[in-house]
Specification:
Elements lengths: L2 H12 L8 H11 L5 E4 L5 E5 L6 E7 L4 E7 L5 E6 L11 E6 L2 E8 L21 E3 L5 H7 L5 E4 L4 E2 L4 E4 L2 H18 L8 E7 L7 H10 L3 E9 L8 H4 L9 E5 L4 H13 L5 E5 L6 H6 L6 E9 L7 E4 H16 L10
Parallel strand pairs: 3-12, 3-13, 13-16, 14-15
Antiparallel strand pairs: 1-2, 2-12, 4-5, 4-9, 6-7, 6-9, 7-8, 10-11, 11-17, 14-16
Helix pairs in contact: 1-2, 1-4, 4-9, 7-9
Amino acid sequence: MRPASKRFLVDLLSAPGPSGYEGPVRGVWKDSVAKFADRVEVDVHGNTIGVHNEAGRPNIMFAGHVDELGFQIVYIDDKGYLYFDTIGGFDLQIVPGRKVRIHTAQGPVLGVLGKKPIHLMKAADRTKVPDKHDLWIDIGAADADEARQLVAIGDPATYDANFEELRNGLVVSRGIDNKAGAWVVAEALRRVSRAKRKCRAAVYAVATVQEEVGLRGAKTSAYGVDPLVGIAVDVTWATDHPDIDKRQVGECKLGGGPVILRGANANPVVYERLVQVAKKKKIPYQIQAEPGGTGTDANAIQLSRAGVATGLVSVPQRYMHTPVEIASLADLDHTAQLLAEFALTVDGKTSFIP
């Protein structure tokens, strides 16, 4: 991965962006894409759209949601402890004991997710998943007045930023789901804009918002872009670690390349074309089978207006929806390459009728 692209990835992963509060990470994405897109705009919903060759045909939309999981402050008690609701789907077993940053108007406030010590629990409670209202955020405030001077009701919070490199080209961070996808669509647009051969299609890279709370940004941005072809980029479960039954979820490994969806949520022409491009350009790839709709932006894009020829390309990831998600830099690079090469094969005469 080229150094500037890697720096962009780190900046995306470090910037907060819970669903509905994507402002900081949106700014990082927009500033980077503005360096090579013909234009970049933010719509009323908060989706950020970078465009290359707007006069081309057809419209191709690459979508990666930029929002992440988070917490929202809902109550401050008399002692200054903060109570929260979750933004997106959490495994509450692994929430207690984590450091968080509350993103306030004055700046970030450090806190700790607290829970009754195991020593003081009844035996029956030690193996139970805690309820949200049994957890709190401790910011070290002396009382409610101090806490309310620092934090407002509705402020969002995220796990503390923790990007680090492991071995063999693997990285760990919160929010790889799905800032990885937002990075891929931006990087694909950059490669299209720098390609030696002219792109005949109009390419729209979209950092969508509010995917974790209902695919909301994909619905509105797909309606606005009105693409003939839409490819969503998300993460998917790697099955190369213990306690996974591949008979149920298939096989997917880190470093194995982008994962191309085959099934009802993927237009068969888009699927075949992605596979052909991967083979021709010697890009490693994997296949994921899904008989119905998916819980990704691809589902919303496919059903926009009168229908969109849709694909889903995913980045393999371990430990989804935790603070320690792991992905491969090579997979990210190969996914961006696949999308860019796909866009360069499409022109106004290309038919996506099954």
